[in-house]
Amino acid sequence: MTDLSDFPITRKWPPKDPGVIQLYSFPTPNGVKASIALEELGLPYEPHLVPLGDEYVKSPEFLSLSPNNKIPAMIDPDGPDGAPIDLWESHTILTYLSEKTGKLGGTGRDRWEVQKWLSWQVAGLGPMFGQMGHFVKLAKEKVPYAQDRYIGEAKRLLGVIDRQLDGREWVAGDFSIADIAIAPWLNALEFYEAKEMIDWTSHENAVAYVDRFYARPAVQKGRRIPDPDG
């Protein structure tokens, strides 16, 4: 039997089956990247719900696996050399799972298209949409300058992805980890109640893309894992 006792996180979130991938996450746009990828790839895994409160994400056990105190994080008991490996940061997890299985990462020139758009999401779409969402919905006080800045940048980024999707079903050739990274952040506009302010419906390529993404059975399942409602 696989022994994961060297990982302190297993003391707070004990594995039922230490022989499968252990996922520590919460269903945010970043969190569901990992669960959707695992579902799409058909890899066995055990999800552990990590609520976003400081008592969880800043606990010594979670920090031992994810020193930046962010979800998702993961342990694969069957790492590249056959020994367990720990991973954190969603784009690293996506790339790892893709390379582990040889799927969803693109081949030849398409591999670098996937990596470009994966990097675009990590460096631009996620951070800017997240800041926009904070200032338009979650901030305790309104900051007009911040709202204008991030709404403007969100519109620009939405235009970038809408143009990329013109005549394409998926962002970088075949369905890939780039789509798994990007689509959940576009879908977050619903939660942020920001669709109208960035003129979502006029971006027809992006609208159709998100609908297409969420019609996939693996996405439908992975989008609520780990389930915060139990």
Structural summary, described in words:
The protein is about 50% helix and about 10% strand. The mean pLDDT is about 95. Strand 3 and strand 4 form a beta hairpin. It is globular and about 55 Å long. Strands 2-1-3-4 form a 4-stranded mixed β-sheet, covered by helices on one side. It has helices spanning about 10, 30-40, 55, 60-65, 90-100, 110-140, 145-165, 175-190, 205-215, 215-220; strands at about 20-25, 45-50, 75, 85-90. The longest helix has 30 residues, at about 110-140. Helix 8 packs across helix 9 (about 205-215).
Order of the strands making up the biggest sheet = 2-1-3-4
The CATH topology of the largest domain is: Glutathione S-transferase Yfyf (Class Pi), Chain A, domain 2
Percent of residues in beta strands: 5-15%
Rg is: 18 Å
The helix/strand order is HEHEHHEEHHHHHH
Number of strands: 4
Average pLDDT number:
97
Low-confidence runs of at least 5 consecutive residues: none
Number of helices: 10
Give the CA-CA distance, first to last residue. 28 Å
Total of domains: 2
By CATH, the architecture of the largest domain is named: Up-down Bundle
